[in-house]
Design goal:
Layout: H1 7-14, E1 38-43, E2 46-50, E3 60-67, E4 70-76, E5 81-84, E6 92-101, E7 113-116, E8 132-138, E9 143-149, E10 157-164, E11 167-173, E12 178-182, E13 189-198, E14 210-213, E15 227-234, E16 237-243, E17 253-258, E18 261-267, E19 277-282, E20 290-297, E21 311-314
Antiparallel strand pairs: 1-2, 2-5, 3-4, 3-6, 6-7, 8-9, 9-12, 10-11, 10-13, 13-14, 15-16, 16-19, 17-18, 17-20, 20-21
Length: 316
């Protein structure tokens, strides 16, 4: 015979929609307030806003950017920078950022970042020169500092954009020649370039590329990335050379990626080359086509290793 429910069971069922009887509680804790908010004028009508990642007792779900109390952008948790467009030249703006968790809790507004957009420059018809002598140094295993020689422009450089491979990850004022990058991962290969940008939104060519392998975390295994990748464009082909990683066994396969997508798998069979490996890629694209190239090795345990540094070439 089925027993009638007890008063305790009835009480549990009544509140099940709000909390679990086993102890699950509604998330009422807000994320921390985003710190380090900065705003840089990218042009007469755009501003680049950046901030440091917030934390939460469970997880940050996204960020909301406000201009004088009005929300202008909503971003996922993986983004901590955004361009605000369609602004008015020679106008003052103030931006704040709030973090949001999956339960909808919002952090307190960040400290305000103020910026005044520059005057328009319709007579600016020339792009800035490329930044020169880019260098990088590791600041521990999770940060780095970039330095370069400033670019020139017929009107003026308003900002420098820092790229990691083909993604812009940071911007600083046109008056600066250094940038601090954080949020890196230990034991990882990074390739940085810098572009100068003027108030007419014209960007320079890339600076020289610099590679950085962040120090590994204590006890972490060594990097499995191929090293010394070189890419040279010839008429109708691109010649590659690199050193396979030291993995305790032969490396018989590499995956070659073009512009972030798998292009081919290079297989040597039973006897891979000793020392430097080479590969010639035939290209039929018109001269001036730009390729970003990187590769990774198949390790003796069957898994794919870390990516090499990236190289950029232009078809001749």
């Amino acid at each position: 015979m089925q027993r009638p429910p007890t008063p305790a069971a009835l009480t549990c069922a009544a509140i099940l929609a709000l909390t679990a009887c086993a102890g699950g509680e509604k998330d009422t804790e807000s994320p921390t307030t985003p710190a380090g908010v900065t705003a840089q004028a990218g042009s007469a009508t755009s501003v680049h806003v950046m901030w440091n990642q917030a934390t939460d007792n469970k997880a940050v779900a996204g960020y909301e950017v406000f201009q004088k109390g009005a929300r202008v952008k909503t971003l996922p948790a993986t983004r901590n920078m955004v361009d605000i467009d369609q602004l008015t030249p020679e106008t003052s703006y103030t931006f704040t950022v709030r973090a949001r968790d999956a339960a909808g809790n919002l952090s307190k507004p960040s400290a305000a970042a103020a910026i005044t957009t520059p005057a328009p420059t319709p007579e600016d018809h020339h792009s800035p020169s490329r930044p020169l002598k880019l260098t990088v140094r590791a600041d521990g295993s999770r940060a780095a500092t970039l330095s370069w020689v400033r670019a020139a422009d017929d009107v003026g450089v308003t900002s420098y954009d820092i790229y990691q491979e083909d993604s812009r990850i940071h911007s600083v004022s046109g008056n600066e020649t250094t940038a601090h990058i954080n949020g890196l991962r230990p034991g990882t290969v990074y390739t940085f370039t810098v572009r100068a940008r003027d108030a007419a939104e014209k960007s320079s060519a890339d600076s020289n590329a610099v590679d950085l392998t962040t120090p590994s975390a204590p006890g972490a295994p060594p990097s499995t990335a191929p090293t010394g990748l070189q890419a040279t464009a010839r008429k109708g082909k691109i010649e590659l050379s690199w050193t396979p990683p030291q993995t305790g066994g032969p490396v018989k396969e590499h995956q070659l990626f073009l512009n972030g997508k798998l292009a081919t798998t290079i297989v040597w069979g039973a006897q891979p080359p000793a020392g430097t490996a080479t590969y010639t890629m035939t290209v039929t694209d018109k001269p001036g086509t730009r390729y970003s190239i990187k590769l990774r090795a198949k390790l003796p345990d069957g898994k794919w290793g870390d990516f090499s540094a990236q190289r950029t070439v232009v078809v001749r």
